[in-house]
Amino acid sequence: MRKNYILFLLAVATSFTWQTKAQNGGDNCANAVLITPAIYSDVAIIVGSGGASQDDATDAMWYSYIATGNGTININSCASDPAGIDTRLWIYTDTCDTLTPIANDDDGCDAPTTFGSILQDVAVTVGQEYLFEWDDRWGADAFDWEFTYTPDPVGGTNCEEALAVTPGVFNDVFIIDGSGGATQGDASDALWYSYTPIEDGTINISSCASDPTEIDTRVNVYTDGCDVLTAVADDDDGCDAPNGFGSILLGVEVVGGVEYLIEWDDRWEVAAFDWELVFSPEGFNDNCQTAIDILCGGSIEGTTLDKTDTNGVGGPDAFYKYTETSPQERDVAFSLCTAFDYDSYMRIYTSCDLDNPMENDDACDLGSEITLTTIPGTTYYIAIEGYNGDTGNFTLTIDCAAPPEPPVNDLIINAINIPGTYTDENVNTQFATEEGGNPTNCTIDGFNGVWYYFLCTPGMGLTDASIVSPNGVSSVIFFEASTPTPSVTELIRVEDAQNPCFTGTSSSIEPEIGKYYFLLATNSGGATTINISQILGVENTVFENFTYFPNPTSGVVTLKNNNSIEKVVLRNILGAEVLKSTINATQTTMDMSNLSSGSYILTVFVNGQSAQYHILKE
To answer: Partners of 39 in the beta sheet?
Structure first.
């Protein structure tokens, strides 16, 4: 890959910047001609001039080159015209008094100039003088030679060769076209760096200040070494104008002693660009991404003396963030009035885009204070700076109004047991909290509401529930359960067209005797009255005193009724009949010990009427 890069640079340099020169070298080392990379045509060794340093040669031609940077050089006479010129080449360092040889070649070229000389990838060090000697070991005919210099890439061409860096600005770096090394499927080549912080903190990576602008870059950051490459952060086109195609990562959390691998790839182009790496130790909150968390009722001392200017009115910023945990809106005051020693200025944002701030300058003398009504779950970013660039120290306090109390039946464990028809007046459903979890056949994420339940007994018929004053998001949903103390995930929505799993203000079901039913009522916009009504099933009055126990059962179940029980039929949840018995008595037993564990439906027949009950076999 290195040769490909050299040949690429050679082609570009030859086409656009190099000059072709006819310049003989000096006739001895002391008279070496100072040169720069170029093509030198029709040069010739002067016969009889002396100056050769090797014992098997007499005359020589000398050049001197001082490296302008770290990199490699290539020298060759392979393109001499006419072909067949026989040359020999030496390179030395350490001045003419010492002449330490570092490379030489004789007859290294390919056909047709097989007697020409070539040296490739000779490493050079910035500021070091290198002496080139062409001697007459084989002849002194005129020949052509070319000299190229390739700077070391400012970064590795692949992850394994990542260049270790410390925070700073890196100018005019470039991705080597054809070098490979990109890890993303939509890129080919890349430039790699390695950074290991000495302590915990955050890093910022940016190419936003590239000159010229409009350079299109993409950056990825990884950990866990080149074999794993666990992605940490990435950006493409995150910079603001005028360099909207540049990349920027702010506030990337890093751990002291851990290596972070930074990849700039050629998803869009390989043009040279500038980039900057900045490290901030933990707690150094000089940008939105490194904002320090603050809580209600607390205070925190801060300073802008060591911060940078991010936005606002021209002063350095210290950033804090507050996330509203209350289930309802409330007033929260952010204040510097307790203590400050400079002309402060406060801005509050709802994102790190830093758009549309709430602002205050002098709420208390030169101190700042903002009171706002917060939205549940929203994070607020508080920027403290100084008016007209002023800096100083301050104490930020946070005073929050008490959050409203949720209703007593906010959680399913506190569901209200209703006897039948029931009215719950002026329920503060808007203060209900989200319990978490979802029943079968219904997703209730975000449905913050109140709970009621009842056991369906003989005589209970159509059950209806409704919200009297709907406001905001309203819903009324019935669920069934096998016990009076289920979790939310153990509930099953009652499958009924009048009991949908979505928002609405009323719902109704036909309950089954022996089952537990739970009602979730939500109304996010305000308090409401909740009505629950039941129509008694007249046809079921013969079962008013019917009882069966124990339920759940591990074996024998006892059945009792005031009226004679004609017969019973037991079915599994698939509807298959598993037990049937003729009774004609007011009391009997039913043995379920040989049945599998699970839910069963018991149908009881009395006076030509029937009723169904739910039994759980353990």
So the answer is: 20, 146
